[in-house]
Amino acid sequence: MLYPIKFKSIYKTKVWGGNKIREIKGDKKVPENCGESWEVSAVQGDISVVSNGFLKGNSLEEIIEIYMGEIVGDKVFDKFGIEFPVLLKIIEARENLSVQVHPDNKTAAERHNAWGKSEIWYILDSEPGSTLISGFNQDINSKILFDSITNGDFEKYVNQPQVRTGEVYYIPSGRLHSLGKGITLVEIQQTSDVTYRVYDYGREGRELHLDLAEDVINYKHIHDVKTKFSHFPDKSNKIISNEFFTVNFLPVMNSIVKDYYEFDSFVMYFCLNGGLTIVTDGNDNVKIKKGETVLIPAAIKSLTLIPDLYSEVLEVYI
Predict the structure, then answer these.
(1) Are 100 and 216 part of one and the same domain?
(2) Residue range 96-135, pLDDT digits in tens
(3) Is there a catalytic annotation at residue 94?
(4) Spans of the chain, pLDDT less than 70
(5) What is the pLDDT of residues 189-229, one digit of tens each?
(6) The domain spanning residue 160 has which CATH number?
(7) CA 113, 119, 26 angle in degrees (round to 5)?
(8) Is residue 251 part of a domain?
């Protein structure tokens, strides 16, 4: 019988990484200068491996190949096959990351035989004054943008909101974006590693992809870049729901029963704060704490969430 599945984190050391991921996860195994922790991944070369239960040691791809729709849902399996469609990772930036854009599904398929990349950021921690980049503060065009990159003054054209813990930013394909120094977040994205680098703050040695990015970028003025959502306790508060993923904010004050009988999808929980015990019929209880992720197979239609104390999770499905 399938059960809530946990995976080994895939830690990635980066020159811009720090120790915030280790602090959030409370895990001394997190290496120094860890810039990313891939929690659930189907990206080739970085496929997650199960860390609990009788499936321990099997890869995410292997268990989907065996159980198919029982893991991900029949409709999800019909569309994506053995490739799990969502990548969930934690990112820490100790310096400004490069300014990037991602193609949509159509362009990525034509150019790279891959999925496009839309993503959403939940801010786990931010230092005072930290900012990010999300789209333009006025309508421009490719000539204005590329001239400003050459001149080094492109930042006057982009939205640079100051960031606070607990905020959410949606980055659809086509939107120019960058993570600023002092920010740690959880990123939920389509399973894709296709990125076009547009600007890198004068750092040498890394290629820019302006030719590929030019007809992908949305040059329109983006008026409001922060995603607003409710915080009702013991309820799934919708942050976003589209063809790529649904992400809800779920604050848990009391034990609650979650009913997924009408779903045809896996569910993932990422623990933002506190800790939870997940109880399902006929299985051992599974616990998650801050910084941990669990995958609920589509075959599990009902479960109970029992908080250690007040806890918060992100609920993710398709």
Answers:
(1) yes
(2) 999 999 999 999 999 999 999 999 999 999 999 999 999 9
(3) no
(4) 205
(5) 999 999 999 998 878 768 889 999 999 999 999 999 999 99
(6) 2.60.120.10
(7) 115
(8) yes
pLDDT at 22: 96
Q: Which of 22, 175, 197, 203 is catalytic?
A: 197
Sequence-distant (≥ 6) Cβ neighbours of residue 220 within 8 angstroms: 135, 136, 139
One domain, residues 148 and 280: no
User: Of 227, 253, 280, which closes a domain?
Assistant: 227
pTM over cut 0.90 = yes
Half-sphere CA count of 184, side-chain side, radius 13 A: 21
Considering the domain architecture, whether residues 144 and 288 belong to the same structural domain is answered as no
Q: To which H or E segment does residue 64 belong?
A: helix 60-67
64/189 same-domain check: yes
Residue found under tokens 């949509």 = 104
144 by DSSP, 3-state: which? helix
The residue whose two tokens read 């990313």 is 36
Residue 284 is predicted with a pLDDT of: 77
Parent domain of 150: 10-227
